[in-house]
Amino acid sequence: MKVLIYGYGNPGRMDDGLGNELVNALEHWSKKNNIDYVEFDSNYQLNIEDAYDISTKDVVIFVDASKEDIDDFVLTKINENSNLSFTSHEASPGYIYYLSKKLFKKAPETFLLHIKGYKWDFQQGLSEGAEHNLNKAIAYMKIIIKNPENIIKFKHNIIIQN
């Protein structure tokens, strides 16, 4: 099984860097534990070119900071009914999924891990609340990484809200 965990956001905007921080932590942990079936990537934003990368995977988990009214984190399924927004500055996970399916005829099991953030100022570092939520999301994702076949069994939009 090929798994991709792709975090995105701007680490220079405090909690907006949650996706990048999760990827950094899990990539280090995976190397330390000799887990070689998971690839990691992070960027400031998703790009249309990412559609090819996800088309080569079985499971894709995008990770982003959230301003929404959620608890610590929530994992949602991405499919053809997901938000399909695209501008010259950003593409949504739903749009990347759509492009993968349309252009490459591949529809990997795709999810978005939303991690609750609180502060978006122009500075490095996470707020205390975001750091707490990040640690909970990392612990959850370690379970997923150890057993990625279990995530495919979920067919509902919201999988877990912690």
Question: Secondary-structure blueprint of this entry?
Answer:
Elements: E1 3-8, H1 18-32, E2 38-43, H2 50-55, E3 59-66, E4 73-78, H3 93-104, E5 109-116, H4 128-146, E6 158-161
Parallel strand pairs: 1-2, 1-3, 3-5
Antiparallel strand pairs: 4-5, 4-6
Helix pairs in contact: 1-4
Short overview:
With 162 residues, this protein is of the alpha/beta class.
Can you characterise this structure?
With 162 residues, the chain is an alpha/beta fold. The chain has a single domain (3-161), classed as Rossmann fold, CATH 3.40.50.1450. 32% of the residues lie in helices and 23% in strands. A six-stranded mixed beta sheet has the order 2-1-3-5-4-6. Strand 1 (3-8), helix 1 (18-32) and strand 2 (38-43) form a beta-alpha-beta unit. The longest helix has 19 residues, at 128-146. The chain starts with a strand and ends with a strand.
CATH architectural designation: 3-Layer(aba) Sandwich
Head-to-tail CA distance between termini: 26 Å
CATH topology: Rossmann fold
Number of helices: 4
Keyword list:
6-stranded mixed β-sheet, about 160 residues, Rossmann fold, 6 strands, globular, alpha/beta, single chain
